[in-house]
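Write out structure tokens for Polyamine export protein.
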Amino acid sequence: MTQSLLVIALLIAASAFFSMAEISLAAARRLRLRQMADEGDPRADLVLRIQEQPGDYFTVVQVGQNAVAILGGIVGEGALSPHFSSFFSVWMSDASANTAGFIASFLIITSLFILFADLFPKRLGMAEPERLAVRLARPMAWFMALLRPLVWFYSRGADALFRLLGLSSLRDDRITSDDILAMMEAGARAGVLAAREQQVITNVFELDTRTVSSAMSPRDRVAFFLRDEPDSVIRLRIAAEPFSTYPVCEGDIDHVVGYVDAKDLFQRVLNNQPISLADDSLVRKVLIVPDKLTLSEVLEQFRQVHEDFAVIVNEYSLVVGVVTLNDVMSTVMGDLVGGPSDEEQIVKRDENSWLIDGVTPVSDVVRVLDLDELPHAGEYETLAGFLMVMLRRVPRRTDSVSWSGFKFEVLDVDSYRIDQVMVSRLPSPDSTAAPQSVG
């Protein structure tokens, strides 16, 4: 009896070894293993090589686990069944006692294997996969060498099945942006990453999906000079609308010929020199970009031409706005560098209402309201565009749209431009959009 129990304990330990080896290799993160290898741990390199071709490794695991399970059943039944049968024979017939003894022996042996050879080692392997993987890699390598004929036979059989089904047996370790964002979200929940830092990383990945229109200064807010304007008009406009860069146009804003840097203008003012935009040395060549470019594409164009200012045109070659490098970086940094302009775009009045500028990017509105997305998301870039799409016309003052528990009400319209929108949380969430026109 004692000898059989010792054998069962050894079989459970062997099965636990194979269980930990299996789950730790599968759960081990390649980034962490690479870091351990760079720190000088050769075992991490071995685990990385095994992960690239894990077929032989898992073959050894399955051979070991199945062999141990069969031996455990044989030894356990022979060791415990007679004792249980003798115990039950006090109350039962011999046949019934033998059956009850077999069932009791089976349940106990199975329970011991499930608890100590499967559940506990696998949970341990999931908790510390890299540490266990590097410790078990060399013993598993010895088993692979020892069982080479069996490993070759079963591995080749598994490979043939994969080829027959047209499947790949190689592990796909490519890291996508979704993987990184999921890791950042998990880090934020765990407290390792600050929520604002997570938002910055999310904004970086959004550069490939957000168009330049979401970060630009719209046409009606662009301060520009006409090339033939006199010195006095230029000085007055600089004082009234102080910006770092001004487009220079011929006749109107849709005929941009270049731009002038405010530093050059201030230098002339300080030196009491006249300002004339007819001077080609003062007007610089301007970068013109289409309004369908993404923010990442605009950044690339800034890098190629060594500029930080661009004029945005639509498909009809009409100017729709301007964008600077600072505008793009503000989109990335978000609240970390939020200034007065950010505060003006979204103002939280109380827990259930916000005052939002009509040109606010939809991504910012969705983030502030904690929504997944707004309907018809691909058809607009701003809150004003959302209202136009939902109402199917140019909104008027007091028009409203209800969506997903929020009411979007137009408060102020200036020459068909939506200046302010009041967003209020409804008492009971609405699951569908309900455009309304009031007044």
